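Query structure, 448 tokens:
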């Protein structure tokens, strides 16, 4: 901001504008220098003529006129001062180029409008007076008799013609420049906002990918861990009774095969969901991952058991377990040698598939942990159907023997259960009991 309130677009040399001193560009300096030379030549000639007619030294008038005309070089820095100089030399009928260009520059600058109006009015009045007096002297000297009103009308036309057009043009250019600057600032602001939005979109996409990877890992853990754990337990039992009790070993082997087929079926369904194209899931239908072999008669019973263990389809078409299969889940744990009891409170009613699947997975993972870490311990499974929620409790006593199955533990079971329950707005608590056992409790809002 300059002393007169003019905003200089450029700046000192080396600034982004690239021009020296107060010029925004080098070509602006060349333009102002050219106008200053033209104005200086004009004012030099007119100053010498005025000094000669006034009885002064022509050389002095020429020097003063040259300095006055060269002041146009300062029009971008001090437009108000240049207009005042043009007003000062108006009585000498000097500085036509200086007056027109300085008024245009003043109107196009950021000087307050009241200052522009005042200086423009002073220029109109000064030009009017000088033109009227000059024409009146010329007519009197020549001996003509011209009406005063005609002289006044011509003087008004001259004053308005020399003042109003450059002022209007300057106001238009200044308004247009300010509009372009505001649009450029707005475009820069929108570009910054778009850049921020793109960054946020990238962050959301990355977060969504991480959440999807976590969800897939949790689903795979829930689907595989329980059945594989039971298979390991049965395999250990089979090894210990294969010679002493062949009939019991045969039953354990058949159960082991059934569980293996169920685990493979659940894995196949999981992979089928992951491979399904978005368009194929519009109607809630999931195509199979691969064409299964034709079942024989010996597999029909196993297929029925698998269908029961797999559960029903939810609203999205994804197959998942439900609370009606808790009895089958408990029976499988009993078959593996666990002393487990199931208790239900309240009236059983169908709930949203996500609620039932989450409750089922909590019980499944808690029983899996009991198989791993509480061998021979009594386990209680309690499900309470309440008005606005469903509560699940799985509690086992202290282990009766050291774990011998060699089941690995990744430490993600409890984390996965808590994530599932929290995603539905429920509460999850797990910890060691006073008797040395372990308790898993979850409360999930019921959505019928």
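Result returned for the query:
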């Amino acid at each position: 901001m300059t002393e007169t309130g003019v905003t200089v677009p450029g700046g000192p040399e080396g600034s982004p504008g690239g021009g020296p001193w107060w010029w925004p560009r080098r070509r602006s300096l060349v333009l102002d220098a050219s106008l200053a030379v033209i104005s200086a030549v004009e004012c030099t000639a007119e100053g010498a003529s005025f000094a000669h007619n006034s009885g002064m030294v022509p050389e002095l008038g020429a020097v003063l006129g040259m300095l006055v005309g060269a002041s146009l070089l300062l029009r971008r820095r001090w437009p108000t001062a240049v207009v005042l100089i043009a007003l000062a030399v108006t009585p000498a009928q000097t500085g036509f180029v200086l007056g027109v260009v300085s008024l245009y520059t003043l109107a196009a600058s950021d000087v307050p409008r009241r200052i522009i109006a005042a200086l423009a009015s002073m220029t109109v009045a000064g030009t009017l007076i000088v033109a009227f007096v000059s024409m009146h002297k010329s007519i009197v000297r020549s001996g003509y008799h011209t009406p005063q009103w005609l002289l006044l009308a011509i003087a008004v036309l001259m004053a308005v013609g020399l003042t109003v057009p450059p002022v209007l043009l300057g106001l238009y250019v200044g308004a247009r420049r300010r509009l372009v600057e505001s649009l450029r600032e707005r475009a820069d602001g929108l570009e910054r906002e778009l850049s921020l939005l793109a960054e946020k979109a990238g962050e959301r996409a990355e977060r969504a990918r991480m959440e999807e990877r976590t969800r897939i890992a949790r689903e795979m853990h829930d689907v595989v861990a329980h059945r594989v754990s039971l298979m390991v337990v049965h395999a250990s039992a089979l090894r210990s009774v294969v010679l002493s009790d062949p009939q019991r070993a045969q039953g354990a082997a058949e159960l082991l095969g059934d569980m293996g087929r169920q685990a493979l079926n659940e894995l196949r369904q999981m992979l089928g969901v992951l491979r399904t194209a978005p368009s194929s899931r519009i109607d809630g239908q999931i195509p199979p991952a691969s064409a299964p072999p034709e079942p024989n008669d010996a597999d029909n019973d196993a297929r029925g058991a698998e269908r029961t263990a797999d559960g029903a389809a939810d609203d999205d078409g994804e197959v998942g377990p439900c609370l009606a299969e808790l009895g089958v889940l408990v029976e499988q744990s009993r078959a593996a040698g666990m002393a487990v009891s199931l208790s239900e409170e309240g009236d059983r009613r169908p709930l949203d598939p996500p609620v039932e699947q989450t409750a089922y997975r909590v019980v499944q993972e808690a029983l899996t942990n009991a198989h791993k870490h509480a061998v021979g311990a009594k386990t209680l499974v309690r499900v309470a159907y309440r008005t606005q929620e469903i509560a699940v409790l799985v509690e086992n006593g202290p282990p009766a023997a050291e774990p011998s199955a060699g089941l690995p533990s990744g430490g993600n079971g409890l984390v996965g259960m808590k994530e599932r329950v929290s995603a539905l707005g429920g509460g999850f608590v797990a910890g060691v009991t006073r008797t040395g056992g372990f308790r898993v409790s979850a409360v999930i809002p019921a959505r019928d």
